[in-house]
Structure formats: C-alpha cells, structure tokens
Amino acid sequence: MKKKILALTLAAVASLSLLAGCGSKTDDAKVITVGASPAPHAEILEVAKDVLAEQGYTLEIQEYNDYIVPNQAVESGENDANYFQHITYLNNFNKENGTHLVSVATIHYEPFGIYAGKCTNLAELPDGAQIGIPNDPTNGGRALLLLQEQGLIQLADNVGLEPTKLDIVDNPHNYQIEEIEAAQLPRSLSSLDIAVINGNYAIEGGLKVNEALAVESSQGTAAEAYGNVLVVKEGHENDEAIQALVKALQSDEVKAYIQETYSDGSVQPLF
Known about the structure:
By secondary structure, the protein is α/β, with parallel strands linked by helices. It contains 10 helices and 13 strands. The chain folds into 2 domains: 2-110 and 224-269, D-Maltodextrin-Binding Protein, domain 2 (3-Layer(aba) Sandwich); 113-216, 3-Layer(aba) Sandwich (D-Maltodextrin-Binding Protein, domain 2).
C-alpha cells in the first residue's frame, strides 16, 4: 500500500513538473527582448511596453550606448530585435559585417543638428575652426552633407549618402573636421567650435533641436534615408511577437507620446 501511495505521489509530482515546464515555454514565447539607445528609443519603447502588456506580452528593454553591440546582439539571438538606428546605417552595417539584419518597420525620424560649442553663430565661425562629426561612415557622411548644405564646405559631385573627408573639394576657411565617436560629441562641445550631432545623443546631452545653429530638413531624402527602424534577424519578420511589437510601436499611444514629449521636433513619427 505504501509503495502504491509513493508511486502515485511521484506520478503527481512528475505531472506538475511537466505542466510547469509547458508554462515556462509559453511564458518565454510572450517575452520580447529589444536593444535600444536610452533616448529616445528606450523611452518610446516604455510606452509600447504598456500597449504590449494588454496583449499578454512582456517587453524587456536592454539599453546600449553604442551602435555596434545592439546589432551583434540581434545577429547572435541574444535580443529579439533592436530599435536605435536608421535604415542607411543598417544597410551599411550588414555590408561591412556580413550580418543578416532586416528592418520590419519605420518608426520615427530625428533631424541632425549643428550645435554650438565655442562658437555660437555659423556666420562667425573662425578660420581653422574645429568641427566635430560622428566617426561612423553613414552618420559622418550625413554630417558632411549638412555642413555642405550650410555652405561651410563643398563636396565632390555625386558622392551619395556616405561622403568622407576625402570628398571635400573646397574648404576655403581650412575648417578642421574632427571625427569623434557619436556618443562623445555632446561632451566634446566645450573643446570644439561646433559639432554635428545625432538626434538621440543630442537628446541625451540635454540639447534641443530648436536651439541648434542649423537643422537638417525633414522633407524628402533625409526622412526617407534616415528613418529610425525596428530591426530583427532575417527570417523573423513575420513572427507573431515581432508583429505585435510593430503594431505597438506604430500605435496611437506611441504617436501621441512622441508628439507631446518631443514637441521641439527632435523626434518626428513616420507612421
């Protein structure tokens, strides 16, 4: 009799363990991990997190302060998705690194701005002025295009979206173009005359785009080429959880948050 009771007890424990295991798998399927820059991406994801919670999903946000590791994390499967980069950067990253990352949705646009360092007026920029730009190809090229737009330098014809310093054909005031890691540019302003800074790092550095010395136009090529996207590894575009995340990020709640929080125009919804 005792042996029979013991057998029944063990069977019950095994059944409970099996049920618990099934529950864990279901729970895991409802967890979405996303890598993001702290601002504005992680802030926007916090709003999407509440929208997803209503559908039974748990959104885990991993913050990164560079532009390389979050892509590596998606490629390796450590994160399900990331949200920090524009489409042009993504395309270049895949080309340079042999990764298999794809955009599943365009969420917002952050206009590039030229911000004051030691000089507070572009018209008074001295000869030999030090100008900081991001040191990665796509954002560095974007910065050079904005400097050309403001008449500070002249680039060769047909340079596309990724010109380099070697493409500068006219620099009459001998401006010194300093290539600096994008995240460090806001902190470097005190040692530079001006700097061209990514929208997310400008926000993190307490800079306001409506106080910039010059701002990239949001019309036409800029918003199309530099729209910030939600990225996954190729093959996961139609995963149920990813599609739920897309809908959450393109929801009315997220749009209202962006428009209210970044009323200075530093972040503009593209949906």
